[in-house]
Specification:
Elements lengths: L4 H11 L4 E6 L5 E5 H18 L6 E5 L4 H12 L3 E5 L5 H10 L4 E4 L2 H9 L9 E4 L5 H9 L3 E4 H14 L3 H7 L6 E6 L9 E5 H14 L16
Parallel strand pairs: 3-4, 3-5, 5-6, 6-7
Antiparallel strand pairs: 1-2, 8-9
Helix pairs in contact: 1-2, 1-3, 2-3, 2-7
Amino acid sequence: MADTVPQLFLEKAQSIPDIVMQYSKQNGKDFVPTTYKEMAEEVAVTAAGFLELGLSRGDTIGFISDNRKEWLLCDLAVTGLGAIDVPRGCDTTEQEISYILSFSECRFCITENEKQIQKILAKKDLMPLLSKIVCFDAFSADLKAKVQAAGMSVITYEELFETGKKRRESKPGEYENEVAKGKGTDTVTIIFTSGTTGEPKGVMLSHKNFLFQIEAFPKRIRIKEGQIWLSVLPIW
């Protein structure tokens, strides 16, 4: 029995490798299927990239992005390594980003695009620990220079993935070994409230919290292997 979400993910990748896990749009056009087996390898490569970047068990990492395939890849990768994600959407203000990333002591942050990086730059003095950014979309050389001038580094997710490929080849099974170390009581995410009545409050959730939902869900709604579900709610 899996104790963590990444452990359950890898169990499914073993038991139903050829079932489609996710459909995602490629270049905003056609939906492209990704099986559990394919997703497991992409997650492992992504995790290898984060290890190469210096991510360690217990680190907190900001996710300033809306729902997309890369979000799920990074989430399963970093939480499988024992890190804690701190998610927020692209509608988050500069003030909220600086408060959330500073309060949760994030050294790493994943952003969806240049606009989110600009928000970080505007309040960098309030986030002294933040040093490394991974951006899903491409960014300009000018923005990279500004990030470096602010004492941080920034790479694209594509660059992270390519780095991960090399490490995955030299250290096969590294991600899987790290996933096996996880415990159900480990904090997997810190989800901040909207902050409508004051500063946002961080809610710490464990793997057990999520696994309980997974166990309870089929008792209320009938689901079958291979069914397609649409993700509507914001990921955070």
